[in-house]
Amino acid sequence: MFVVVVTFQIRAGQMADFLPTMTQNAQTSLAIEAGCHRFDVCTDPDRPNEVFLYELYTDRAAFEAHLHSPHFEAFDHDVANMIIDKTVATYAQVSS
């Protein structure tokens, strides 16, 4: 398995627009991408402008396919101006 974690810092006042778009991207990924096994969208009230993602893919190729999917490209375009910062880290599963 291939794990992707993403942390977004969202512009003040943009969370109400960002979260539904983010959630839709996650739901679509799970529904139509055979290589996407988990896509959690998380927030913490103590960090109101932060969104954390935990994504699980079959392998790196499945994640790359996700990045080139029409729904991800539309999401990425739609939220570009809402994001102050984005950090992406990837991990290969060592053992279960």
Automatic annotation (TrEMBL):
<dbReference type="Pfam" id="PF03992">
    <property type="entry name" value="ABM"/>
</dbReference>
<dbReference type="InterPro" id="IPR011008">
    <property type="entry name" value="Dimeric_a/b-barrel"/>
</dbReference>
<feature type="domain" description="ABM">
    <location>
        <begin position="2"/>
        <end position="91"/>
    </location>
</feature>
<dbReference type="GO" id="GO:0005829">
    <property type="term" value="C:cytosol"/>
</dbReference>
<dbReference type="GO" id="GO:0016491">
    <property type="term" value="F:oxidoreductase activity"/>
</dbReference>
<dbReference type="InterPro" id="IPR007138">
    <property type="entry name" value="ABM_dom"/>
</dbReference>
<dbReference type="InterPro" id="IPR050744">
    <property type="entry name" value="AI-2_Isomerase_LsrG"/>
</dbReference>
<protein>
    <submittedName>
        <fullName>Autoinducer 2-degrading protein LsrG</fullName>
    </submittedName>
</protein>
